[in-house]
Amino acid sequence: MRRRVRVAGALLLSCAALAGCGLTSGSPMVDTVRPGSIGQGQPLAGARLTVTSKQFTEQIILGQIMGLAFKAAGADVLDRTSIQGSFGAREAVKTGAADGMYEYTGTAWITHLGNTKPIADPYEQWKAVRDADRPNGITWLPAAPLDNTYALAANRANAEKYGLNDLSDVARLVKENPSAATLCVESEFAARDDGLPGLEKAYGFAFPPGNIRKMDSGIIYTQLAKGSACTLGEVFTTDGRIAELDLKVLADNKDFFPNYNAAPEINTKAFDKYPAIARILDPISRKLTTQTARKLNAKVDVGGEDPHAVAKQWLIQEGFIKSG
To answer: What phi and psi, each to the nearest 5 degrees, are found at residue 261?
Structure first.
């Protein structure tokens, strides 16, 4: 995601040979799985496909979901998930060192394709990314409802105390009761145009400088839950800690934050050879909602479960694949 690529330029250079991005390693998926509602007739029988992902929980889970779906459809699958940095995984798909991954529309549009203004409508954003990436040898399949974007949140007590339901309520709080409007954010969010400066401009308010507290992401969540140092805080909408800590995510009622919908991006040569990939992944993507991602991420980040096991359990529960 965008917050993971602070050294993107240097990383891109180091990934030119791909070995520097961890792509010389990997292990076969050895699960014994078979088709459920997807993969009937094993249309990928004989295929050798490599899946990749970035190096954070949600991405690893999504990579495992893709790999297990391919496996159930008959493919031999090499697992090269958990690649450091956004550019490493992207370059793997682009060059054919990997065949597919789940990427975010906002990341592709802004970080990889060099645009500065996001598109407000999620479908139009996906279409723009799909069309712009065709010349790069990348095929985008339909996006999931899953939207891992920025948000502001509060604990339940503070949300009720100050009447906080959406970001316009935050603007009201800052103007009417500025001493109560304390905000905990990462340093990057405090400086990004698609972060705090742009948010304040879009909603017409400004936090008092002394009320903005910069800290690491993990600390923000714990401080938000306590509710004393931070009335409000920066969160990511699919983070499993939102539910675990019972935080209230405030609605972005002016649609300021970019869309970061997860969608399969597939190396075009691989897709042309195995077009069945689309009908395998499309039903899965439709089921991947923001709330589903929160639950799956929490199993790993809060419950300590293995991402592969979490992905497999979800696919089986949803009937997409069967074990054995």
So the answer is: -75, 135
Cβ contact 92:130 at 8 Å:
no
Tokens of 151: 């948000």
CA 28 to chain centre: 24
CA gap 221, 229 in Å, rounded: 11
CA separation for the pair 280, 299 (Å, rounded): 25
Q: Roughly how many angstroms between the first and final C-alpha of the chain, as a whole number? A: 34
Neighbours of 183 (CB within 10 A): 22
Q: How many residues comprise the chain?
A: 324
Question: If residue 212 lies in a helix (H) or strand (E), which one and from where to where?
Answer: strand 212-214
Q: What interhelical angle do 167-176 and 196-203 show, nearest 10?
A: 80
Are 301 and 242 contacting, i.e. CB atoms less than 8 angstroms apart? no
pTM, two decimals, is 0.86
Q: Which residue type sits at 109?
A: W
CA distance 324 to 318: 16
Which tens digit of pLDDT belongs to each residue from 59-91?
999 999 999 999 999 999 999 999 987 899 999
Would you say 138 and 94 are in contact if contact means Cβ atoms under 8 Å apart? yes
